[in-house]
Specification:
The protein is mainly beta and 128 residues long. The protein contains one helix and nine strands.
Length: 128
């Protein structure tokens, strides 16, 4: 009988998380979004969000850890009409446990969230 790989839970290991935060982020794009929506499910290190409000009205953009706007708030910013925006985050990013949810109020947003998908366990694919 062949030996099986033994699982290791490294999801809370600070050294591993510091390494993960140094990896290049992948963009999670959103196009012409006028209503709040879930962008991704799973664990991520969110490095930032950038975009543009193409609406003729000012609005607000919020980013949450979760499946909806009841999750922990990552960042929020007011956006002027027809202008660009970013939500400033710490240099090492912010870790989400549940997912990434984009909250939109009276705006039409196009942009992306830069995020590094994390493994929950060493036997699962990133973002699972």
């Amino acid at each position: 009988m062949a030996a099986q790989m033994r699982g290791q839970d490294l999801k809370g290991d600070w050294q591993w998380l510091a390494f993960a935060a140094s990896l290049p982020a992948s963009p999670i794009q959103f196009l012409a979004v006028t209503a709040s929506q879930k962008l991704a499910t799973g664990r991520f290190i969110v490095g930032g969000i950038t975009g543009v409000n193409t609406a003729a009205t000012a609005g607000q953009v919020a980013l949450y850890d979760g499946q909806d706007a009841t999750g922990p708030l990552i960042g929020i910013v007011d956006v002027a009409a027809t202008s660009s925006f970013t939500i400033p985050l710490p240099a090492n990013g912010v870790m989400t446990e549940i997912g990434i949810y984009l909250g939109v109020t009276t705006a039409t947003l196009t942009g992306s969230v830069s995020a590094v998908p994390l493994w929950i366990y060493n036997k699962t694919a990133p973002g699972q």
